[in-house]
Every structure is written in C-alpha cells, then in structure tokens.
Amino acid sequence: MKAIKNLGLVIFLIGLAVFAAVPVLGTFSLDQNTFDEIVKEKNIKSDVFIQSINENVVGKDFNGMLSLSPTISSALDAANNQHKKNKEYNKVIYTSGHDMAALVGKKSGTGFISQNKGLMWFLSFGLGIIGALMFILPNVILLGKKGIKNDGVYHDSATNRGWIAWLVFIFLVSFYLILYFRPEFAVNWTFLVDPISESLSGNPAGHWFVYGFMYCTVMTVMAVRMYIKYRHNVYQVVRTTSVLFFQIVFAFLIPEMMVRLQMPYYDFKNAFPLDYDFFFQWNLKELLNSGGIGLFILVWGIVLTLVIVPVMVYFFGKRWYCSWVCGCGGLAETLGDPYRQHSSKSLFSWKVERWLIHGVLLFAVVMTGMTLYSFFTESSTIFGIKTQSVQNTYSLLIGAIFAGVIGTGFYPIFGNRVWCRFGCPLAAYLGFVQRFKSRFRITTNGGQCISCGNCSTYCEQGIDVRAYAQKGENIVRSSCVGCGVCSAVCPRGVLKLENGPEEGRINPTEVLLGNDVDLMDLVNKK
Amino acid sequence: MEHIVIIGNGISGVTAARHIRKLSDKKITIVSAETDYFFSRTALMYVYMGHMKFEHTQPYENWFWKKNRIELLKGFVTAVDHEKKTLILAEGKELAYDKLIIATGSKPNKFGWPGQDLKGVQGLYSKQDLDKIEANAPNKEACNRAVIVGGGLIGIELAEMLRSRKIPVTFLVRENSFWNGVLPSGESEMINEHILEHHIDLKLETNLVEIIADENGRAKAITTDKGETIECNVVGLTAGVTPNIDFLKDSGIELGRGVKVNRFLETNIKDIYAIGDCAEQHEAIGNRRPIEAVWYTGRMMGEALAQTICGKPRQYSPGHWFNSAKFLDIEYQTYGWVFSERSKQEHESHFHWRHASEKICITASYHKDSKKFLGINTFGIRMRHEIFDRWLTEERDIDHVMQYLKDANFDPEFYSHYEEEIISKYNSVMQTNLSVQKKSWKRIFSKA
Ligand SMILES: Cc1cc2nc3c(=O)[nH]c(=O)nc-3n(C[C@H](O)[C@H](O)[C@H](O)COP(=O)(O)OP(=O)(O)OC[C@H]3O[C@@H](n4cnc5c(N)ncnc54)[C@H](O)[C@@H]3O)c2cc1C
Ligand code: SF4
Ligand code: SF4
C-alpha cells in the first residue's frame, strides 16, 4: 500500500513537472495567412505594428514563448508609442502585449506540443490524475477504521507550513499570476485541452478553459480524498458531492454548451456580487442582444441575488451557497481541506475580516451603482471619476489579486478560505442575512464542551468556535459557511448544525447546563 | 480592595476567576506552577497526535488576562500560612491574600510499584507529561513498545496517542473487561472489541508487578502478575488520579484524600476554599463521588464559588449528572445514572441495544418497578443534553424516553437514524407496543 502511494507520488510529480515545463516549451511559427487573419479579426490598423511583425515574426521559428512574447510586446509598444506621438489615435492597439502574444502563440503553435495534444494531455493531466489517485486511494486501507483522521497534520511539512507547503504556495501563486497577467505562457496548456474544448463548445480552448478544466479535475480528485477522509460523516459526503456537481455541471459544462448553442456564456449559480461584472456594460449589452435566453439570464441573475439567495439563507444558512454550491467554496473544501487549520482565530483577525469584507462589499456596490448609472445615462464619469477605471481597479485588485492569487495561492499558508472570509462580497451579504434573519445556527450541546479546541483549530473561517461552545452558547456568526467540520472533529458531540425556529437561536449564557438550576436561572436571565 | 488568590490555573481556578471578575472589582491573582497560561488538559492527547499545536489548547488569547485584570503568577506554592494569610512560594517569596481558593487539581496515582520512578515511566496529566511522552516516545523506532497500566479514560487516550505513531502498545487492565466498574457489560465488551481492532494488545485481569531497569536506569521491561515479562521502553501509569495537595499537609486545613469542603466549598478555615479535582465533599452529593475529578465539576464549582466570594453565598448543588468521553473512534455520552452490573443497585434495570454491525449502542436505565427513567449511556450516537436534562427533571418514564428519542438525537444531519430499531427491540423485550414519535422542534425548544 505504502509502495503504491509512493509510486503515485512519483507519477504525480512527473505529471506536474511536465505541466510546469510546458509553458516555456514549444515552437511557434507564424505564417502570413494566419497573421492576416489576426489583423482582420482584431481590426488592427497600425501599419507600423503589421510591418514590424511581418519583418520580425512571420515566417520565422520561435523557440518557446520566452522568445516570442518579448518580440511581439516590443513591436506593439513601439507602434503604439509612435502613433501616440503622431496623435494617430485610431491606430493605437488596445490589446495588451501579453494578450497579443497569447493570440499569436495560439494560432502559430507548430511544435511537438500542438501536434500531440492527446499525448501531452496524458503526460501532464493524465499522469497527474493517475498519480494523485494512486496516492489517495490506498488511504481507504491505510487510514484504518473510519473516524476523524487528523493524525500528524501538525507534524507534516505539507500541512504545517513546512517547505512542502511553501513550494505549493509558490506553485499556486505562479499559476495564478500566469493566468491573470501572462496569458501567453498559458498558450501551450490550451493546446492540451483543445480536443476537450472543441467537443464541448466547438471552439479551441482559451486559457480560462484550461483553468475551468483544471478546476474541475482538481476538485474531483480532491473530492475523492474528502470521501475517504470523512467516510464516516454523511454530511461531508453529501456536501462534497453537491459542490462537485455544481462545479462540473453549472460552472463548467453548461456554460460551454451554451456557447455551442450560440448563447451567452453564463454560470447560473454564480450570483452577483461575487459575479461582479454581471452588470458591466459589455455583459448587459451581450445579454440584451441575445434574445430570450439573454433576457432570462438577466432576470435570473437579479432574482438569484435579490430573492433566491436571501430566502435560502433564511431557511438553511449561508452554507447552502458557500459550502454546497459555490465554486470558490468548492475548491476550498476539496483542494483546500488539508490547509483549513491555518485560518487565524485571533480577535485581531476577526476585526480585520470585518473591515475588509465589508469594504469589498461596499466597493462592489458602489462600483455597480456607477456602472448602472453610466449604463442608463450613457455618461462615462460620475463626479469626475471614470466608471471604467473603477471597474478596472476592482477587476485587478479584487477579481484577480484577491480572489485568485491570494484567495487560492495562499491556501497552504493562511488557510483555505482567505477569499471567502476576508474578501467575498457575496459572503458579506449572505452573512448579514445569516446573522440577523435566519433559522440556521450551530447548537451547542448544553454543558458538554471540554474546551479542547479541535473545533476552533479546524474552522476554516477562523471562528473561535470553542469560545461559544465552552459557554454553552450557540454559534451564530455571519462568517460561518456551515462546512460542518467543527461538528465532525468535536470529540464530545457538542456541536450540531441545524435549522430551527428563530426564537432562542441566540442564547448568551454564563452558567452552563448541568449546574444548579437556580443559579442558571439567576445568572442567565438578562 | 480585597485580594483573591487562586492556586491553580486549571478549569476550576480560571472559571472562578472569570466569574469573580464579572461580579466584582476585586483584585485577582492566579498562582500556578505548570504553565504560563490556562490550557485545556483534556486536549493534551491531540497535541501529541498532531491534530493541534499546544497553543491551540489555550482557550483564551494571551491578552485576555490583562484585559480582565487577572494577574498571573508563575510559581509553586510550598505552604499556606492561614494565620498570616500568606502563601509561601518555592523561591521563598510570599504572597498575601484575603481569600484563598485552592484549585490544584490532581496527580497520577502511583501505587508503590517497584521501578515506578524510573526513566521512561510516566503518567499523562500535565504539560510536562506531554513533553516527556514526546521525548520518550517520539516514534516507533525509538520506542518499540509501550505498556500502559490502568484501564480508565486516560489509559485509553494514551493508547490512542501512541498508536497514532504506530507504536506497539500493551494495555494492562485490572478488570476482566475494559472500564466495567463504570460501564455495563454490553458496552464494556464493545469497547474491548474496538481496542483490539486498533491493534492494541489488551490484557484483561492483568496487573503490573514490577518495572525492570536497564543499566542506565531506564525502564526496559515489566512483569505482570500472570508471570509474563514484557519488554518495553515506555511505561504509562494511568491508574487513576489523586488530589494534588501534598503541600497542604501541615497547613491546618482539613484534608482527607482531598481538601475537605462543605457544600459552600469552604474548608475548615475561614476564607479558604477548594474547588475542582482537589476538593472532597464531606458527604457525597446524590450518586456523585465525594471527589469528582472531571472537567465539568471543576467548572461548575468555579461558577458557584464565584457567587459566594462575591457576597451571594451559594451552595455547590449540581444538576443532573452528565459526562462524555471518546474511546478511540467511539464517542460516549451519558446523562443521568447508568451503573455497571458491579455497582448498580437492586432496583436499577437496563435496556440495551446494539447495532448489528457498527460500533453503536445505547443502554438506558430505569427503575424496575415504576419504570422511571434513570439515565442513558450512548455510544456512537450523540444526544441532546437539554432534552435528557429535562426528561430527568420531569421524571419521565422509560417508555416516554423511547418514544421521543428522535427529539434527543444530536447526530449531524443526514446521519442514519436508529430509533426504529431501538424501539422494536424495546417492544420485544419489554412487551410493549410503542412507536417512534416524529421529531418536533416545538417540543425541543419548549422551556418546560
Ligand atoms: C489526559 C486527560 C484527559 C482528560 N479528559 C477529560 C474529559 O474528557 N472529560 C472530563 O470531564 N475530564 C477530563 N479530564 C479531567 C479534567 O481534566 C480534570 O478534572 C480537570 O482538569 C481538573 O481541573 P482543576 O482546575 O481542578 O485542576 P488542574 O487542571 O489540575 O489544575 C491545577 C493546576 O494547579 C497547579 N498546581 C498544583 N499544585 C500547585 C502548587 N502547589 N503551586 C502552584 N500550582 C499548583 C497544577 O500544576 C495545575 O496547573 C482529563 C484529564 C486528563 C489528564
Ligand atoms: S463554525 Fe464550523 S461549520 Fe462554521 S465554518 Fe467554522 S468549522 Fe465550518
Ligand atoms: S471540539 Fe467540542 S469539546 Fe472541543 S472545544 Fe470544540 S466544542 Fe468543545
């Protein structure tokens, strides 16, 4: 068993190494026809740029993106500079150098990778999946009897912020940086999944398709790990299945199929304001131009946020979204589960959390207000502030850096819910409802708590669960995503997630059940 | 300002301090020798097993004490001079008090076994014991076998700890079945099976005779009263605990096994009180023991004593008994009283149900004539404390409990339910024809 595990690890690492090497490999050779197509498609009017590419790129072989990308970027910068100097604004190219390089790269990939997509897919994704499963599956036997399996979490370098954790951190952060800021290096990855993309949407894969596919793959493999680890806990098994289903079907398959059917790309479960660009002009326009389905999506999106989300939170707590449906939550609960203990439980963190998350919500709401104002009045500024630049700032700071790079990249160091806890505006909104108008609570079982701290340690949202439990008080916190792990790890059966009458949901206590009844009456009545 | 001094920063001392602070402005000092800050003793095992770091066992952040004006003094109290109202600390320092609370907890029992003080022989009680076990048994290479002496709650925890590092464990238990002085036989047998499932070498009806030293004064083997010699590097002594009160021997404070207290938790000397594991009631309360060495009791005594200290005299009068533990993977809860065959009284009858394949069972006890419900033990099913507390107060009969068992279930959502199975066995054993009632939020949350 141990041997299978180790072999699996080796295979996984080979897959990972191939995946990590692919971005800088490959040959690109742009031919004249393809470049003309790009010029037409992108409506490029810069003669300077066209000439420069014709001279320096077309017909030449480039070894790897590292040599192609700077050539294109510098050609583009030089052209733009010249046009700006000559005030030829209609010739300026607004596509960034990186996107342009990605586009050229995608169309001109000729080397081994783009010609052996299936094989390369197998050597990267395939080996990764096989290796990971070989590493995970023997746990069915190795972990022994079913029950809580946290032995050695704090002895293992991977889960105790050791060197493995830091390597994972570097890998994840780099991955997100490439995805958001250097898409040209993702071009070779897109080749690997082209066949899959083509079979779904009919189009070749872009780098977001790589991300989507990887997301589903990683979640599926790590869900297998969850199933094994929590096989005694039906709540965890059901929840994991749910979150996996919504990711694969709603976030991945349906949007791709919709593209095939000439419909707008839309994830029906992605609610505003997590889906922060839902009201952006380009999106509204696209929806309004897409006929019945576009209109339906528009109405659905609004109803989802204003009615469905709060009503469901009233009945079930925010968990129905955050740990049963949401994609970010889904990754956090699968890939992120080994790191859940790293969320800080200090009062200080809680303060930071409240400022940050509510700040982001405010930011999202103000931005959307400006967006809608601009949309309806067709003026691009409000009080002299450009709506577009506010949107860009949000997309960069919140959408890319916070949600992506920090949100997932920092898993191994700050825990798996950094984004959900500190940044997600939807979580902030759901949190208000959960805190003030909901039937959900975590019931504390009378006086049974022994203050051991397992619950707090494993709360991914950094809630000091014990602080409530040891007082006999129910946990009603806006940030609780209802993952149920506090209840699972409690060795004394103290915690139960449940939906019940609102009355008595919040029950501050000083003296706990089991003591003198008169004393309890005296002290606890407020 | 009155100065309240508390010896011991365990659950009892700290609870008293917190509540005194809530009720008053008195000066509070906690003196303790073990650690700088209060930690949860019950969680020691999880640190060794790698579930938590030691800092996670501390229920309050370090700023808490200053903010609440609770002074912490690290030091060992060697004597109490009640005439001068002064404590003598180890380095000869003195500390004056106006009122003194003794909350010094327990220490592991040692029954004078030959070799009990050798290197590699230890109990599991304190932070120092945790450090010791980490040093004595870091892994299975350094520790080829450990022998644990004493089949109680701490013994099985120690066994689980060592097994988490794959260290072979021999577990000596005096009784003929695990913890059957407390648990009824069906449950005790189920735990025996579970211990074996975890590859722990359980030796029932076996006592330690001697611990044998190697040339460095380290334990290298033990012998049992069955004539067996077992080689080992670590010996865990977990045969119960005794109050930690040696330093009070000549203090004039009345001592039995523990510090003798009345229902107000007062000792024989004015302004000196004792709570928690180290306190011994003159007379046992109800079915409780005179010394109750459990977490909950320490806390409840702290809650009650704070009232008394703050001018609202209040007896320690605990409500219905409850307790919980975990045997390896099996959670155990108890509400009310269920005695083992060895200690139960003649009027107490039991109804026992055990799942056909899973390690799940319950035992409900009732008065054999009136059918009054007396208590329940559950293994592998969580129950709602509030509901059982209410049923005990209302003196429900066992039929009622069986019918409304769903109200009491506290397992996580989507778990299998066993009420139907339980009641059908109940019906067939008791010749009744009861049926399971649906769970009702209204009943659960109605305040009786
Ligand atoms: C491993 C383990 C697991 C347990 N699990 C459970 C459980 O699951 N459920 C349960 O109900 N109970 C459990 N218990 C029992 C429970 O922990 C004790 O009942 C409880 O901690 C007692 O609290 P206390 O405040 O009375 O004393 P303690 O927690 O023992 O605190 C007393 C403190 O006083 C200090 N002290 C003693 N003498 C002096 C002195 N002369 N000068 C200065 N300081 C001194 C000690 O060093 C110690 O720090 C467990 C105990 C152990 C050891
Ligand atoms: S409080 Fe419990 S259920 Fe809520 S997020 Fe934390 S661990 Fe999950
Ligand atoms: S895990 Fe359970 S017993 Fe431990 S502190 Fe949390 S609620 Fe209390």
Provide an overview of this structure:
Chain B: Pfam families: Pyr_redox_2. Chain B: Its cofactor is FAD. Chain B: This is NAD(P)/FAD-dependent oxidoreductase. Chain B: InterPro entries: FAD-bd_OxRdtase, FAD/NAD-bd_sf, FAD/NAD-binding_dom. The complex is a heterodimer of chains A (526) and B (448). Chain A is mainly alpha-helical. Chain A is built from 25 helices and 6 strands. Among the domains of chain A are: 82 residues, no CATH class; 282 residues, no CATH class. In chain A, the strands form 3 sheets. A two-stranded antiparallel ribbon of chain A has the order 1-2. In chain A, strands 3-4 form a two-stranded antiparallel sheet. Chain A has a two-stranded antiparallel ribbon with strand order 5-6. In chain A, α7 packs across α10 and α17 runs antiparallel to α18. Chain A is globular, with a radius of gyration of 26 Å. By secondary structure, chain B is α/β, with parallel strands linked by helices. In chain B, the strands form 7 sheets. In chain B, strands 3-2-1-7-19 form a 5-stranded parallel beta sheet. The longest helix of chain B has 15 residues. Chain B starts with a strand and ends with a helix. The interface between A and B is large, with 58 and 59 residues.
State the CATH class of the largest domain in chain B: Alpha Beta
In round numbers, the mean pLDDT of chain B is: 97
How would you state the average pLDDT of chain A, rounded? 94
Largest protein interface?
A-B, 58 and 59 residues
Tally of discrete structural domains of chain B? 3
How much helical structure, as a percent, in the residues of chain A? 55-70%
